[in-house]
Amino acid sequence: MTTMVTTTPSMWRNYSTWANRNRKWLFASPAMIFVGLLIAVPLGWTLYLSVTDSEGSVRAKSNLVGLSNYFEVLTDTDRFWPAVMRTFVFTGGSLAIELILGMCIALLLWRPFRGEKWVRVAILLPLVATPVAVGMMWRLIFDPNIGFANQVLSWIGIPAQPWLSGQYTALPTLMFVDIWQWTPMVVLMLLAGLTSLSDEPDEAARIDGANSWQRFWFVTLPLMRATVIVTIVLRGIDALKTFDLLYATKGKGGGSFHEVETLNIYAFGLSFDYNDYGIASTVLILFFLLIIAIMWVLTYRRKANRS
Amino acid sequence: MKRHSAIRVAAIAAATFIAAGSLTACSTAAGAGDGDGASKTLRVTLANHVWTDTIKDKLPEFEAATGLTVELSQYGEDQLSDQYNVKLNAGTDEIDVMMYRPLQEGKLFAKNGYLADLSDDVESNADWDWSDFQPGPVGSTTYDDNVVGVPIITEQEVLYYRKDLLANAGLDVPTTMVELEAAAQAIKEQNPGVAGFVARTGKSAAVTQFSSFLYSFGGDFIDDNGDSGIASPEAKEAYAFYGKLIREYGPENVSTDMSWPEAMAIFTQGQAGFYTEADSLYKNATDPETSKVSDTVGFAPMPAGPGGSVAYNVPSWALGINAESNNSAEAWKFIEWATSQDLTLEVQQDGVPGARQSVWEDPAGTSTYPADLAAAIATSTKNGVGHDRPLVIKVPEAREIVGDPIVIAITGGDSDAAADDADDAFQGLLDDE
């Protein structure tokens, strides 16, 4: 009894001291463990599957096959590399146009004007729509026979276009839809950057006689560099991951010629259509590494710019 | 101080909400079983289909008779497949009865052990009469001599056509492929803006409807030796013919990704003279609410090619029991009820062809069908082939391979060369299995 009375406070004091010293880790640890498990477990499982010949069911017996899946995927010029190319074309093309268009619109909205609120609401409307609903809507608009797009073309005497159904037109059409939907987000981010800029450098340039273009190119844009890079990182990763729009409009396989099959659609098809979990996991791991590499390059560049 | 109180109240409310949610979840889970693993709640997963609509209306009768509560989940075909892939892969016991496609995923599911063995159940009730089910569909729901499903819906491919366009052109209903091509050409030439022929064009989607052309030209996906048959002269002829029909007599802006909803929309909007499709979709064409041609649509058996008029006659859907289910006895009660003779007759009268021979032999079973459709189905049932896609484990992959020459033919490419390439790939897939 006596021992307990003397020992317990001492243990508690020791713990209390330790906890005080490490409180920042202690408080953060539940969240860190939770996030770690959420990322580490699925990633570890995918990594494991990528070195097995798992197919049919993940519960079925599978064998370790080393890196042969990686060799198979990396030498696949029929589906994998074209999917990589389409992923980059879709992401890069959409992102570039969204940035240019977004910057133009953000500059227009930068200074207050009458009806500014209404214009902002109208611009933001596509952003709030669900990508699947957007896909279904544009699919109807681009229908080759009854779609509104071909109807408009016929009014001005241009022959009907295959839009989403064409082997070479489907990807550019979907890039257009992506630009339509996500440019508002780029506008929002760039506008936030523009409104946080100080007016003084711009005024100084104006006094020095710089015209509008020179003030934008030599003053505003360099000051916006950090915001632009953040926008590229966030929207770029988002565009890389695009799945719902492509799936809602072209379905599994990305069309009869795999014309819009990006890495996401390819991996989904391998998993849910072919039940080829080993190869699907390999594609996903390679995709993951690709995203990490891009993020590293952009982050490195941002740091280099700062220094 | 007030702010702190508000935060405290909010925190307590949130904690109570979370705790209540957890406890409710626990109590539901505990209540799900009654000690021996069985439950009064039966979880049934079905596809969006006319069959499901009829069964849904009848569910209260089943619940009243058995005291069970049916928890129904309903999905589109692709979503249903994805659900099964995720849940059955994870070994879920949250699905008891599952509606599945025997030809598409039956082999894979049975091989993976997802489907319970129903061999004893189907023989347990003589009144229910397992021997009444057509042998073809039964063969498709049997794996390694074990019954793993009960077929509920059958499909045969038939020719949909516009009676008015044929009459205006002074043509008879085509009975051969040659006549079909000539009639499609005549209709297209005589009716600006109207296609002579329409059918599915998507690489995978078209395979099922193309199969009847393949059989009618004398070919098959797999030959008698178990090897790929898609580069045979008959198959090449079928690919070229199907592609030519759509390319030359199809809609003006034909795409290569049409499945049945798109092709059916073109036909029901009055923009095509002929359309080959499954009979189970006939209500889409004859319902005045969905079809502009409801009063002029006619039905005929598949036109005969060099190999005769050979359409597919397949079980498109079946009911199975999840092997992990804790309610297999109750699940069987549901299947027994849903596939009974009475209910099969009712469902068939609602326009869904069933798999029971007695219902087909009963005049009441076909009384609600257009007479020409019933006759076309009778022909297809008699001459039909029991599959409409390659019978392999990796069906989706196989469909993409054998469907490739279809889209090449539609777009005017060299379908013979495409068939040779596809043949190599398909043989590789067969060798792997």
UniProtKB/TrEMBL annotation, chain B:
Feature: compositional bias, Acidic residues: 417-433
Keyword check for Signal, yes or no: yes
Give the Pfam families listed for this entry: SBP_bac_1
Signal sequence coordinates: 1-25
Q: Which PROSITE patterns match?
A: PROKAR_LIPOPROTEIN
Disordered as annotated region, ranges? 413-433
Q: Which keywords, in A-to-Z order, does the entry hold?
A: Signal
- CDD domains found in the cross-reference section: PBP2_TMBP_like (cd13585)
Q: Which PANTHER family match?
A: ARABINOSE-BINDING PROTEIN-RELATED, DIACETYLCHITOBIOSE BINDING PROTEIN DASA
Q: What is this protein called?
A: Sugar ABC transporter substrate-binding protein
- List the source organism: Cryobacterium psychrophilum
**Classification of source organism:** Bacteria, Bacillati, Actinomycetota, Actinomycetes, Micrococcales
